[in-house]
Amino acid sequence: MLCAGAIGYRSLKLSNPRNGMSLGLTGFGASGHLVLKMVRYRYPDARIHVFARNPHERDFARQLGAVWAGDTAAASPEKLDAVIDTTPVWRPVVEALKNLAPGGRLVINAIRKEDGDKDHLLRLDYPEHLWMEKEIKSVANICRRDVSEFLELAAEMHMQPEIEEFPLAEANRALCELKAGKIRGAKVLVDVV
Predict the structure, then answer these.
(1) What is the pTM of this model?
(2) Is the domain of 167 the same as that of 132?
(3) What per-residue confidence (pLDDT) applies to 69?
(4) Residue 151: which H helix or E strand, with range?
(5) Alpha-carbon distance 108 to 83, whole Å?
(6) Which of 23, 45, 64, 125 is exposed most, by the fewest CB atoms within 10 A?
(7) Mean pLDDT over residues 171-186, rounded?
């Protein structure tokens, strides 16, 4: 909760949330599923669109209340007020920009971005991706206030993250499943004595 939840909360704050907005979530793992739960609770009339490469993640998003879920490269059925990107790669950033409404904001919630697909940045098309006062904002840090506010909200809404526990000795298996897209919520390592 403190990593995925608090950073997701900070990302949501930076997206300028409001009831009735159209919000996109790119990537749907630990942080994304908690953000969706927060939005459904605090902004019940918001329309949440989820972009994920894995069909199971898209199904999970719809089960949690997303109005639409499609592939990372899909066009959303409406232009979005904001998109929160939780992926470690560049392609979803470029794809998210084309789904933003004029004046929309892309919030990048990632500790790092891999270099493997950095060439996607060369595909930026100014009129399609950036024109009309679109914004890009990164989440650099969370502060004590973000954590306090998130924990208060989580307690108020009785938040239950979806997790799958792995003994610490099986950390490699958990990482392989993450890489293979076998995820529903978050993977948690526990030290079994």
Answers:
(1) 0.89
(2) no
(3) 98
(4) helix 144-156
(5) 8
(6) 45
(7) 77
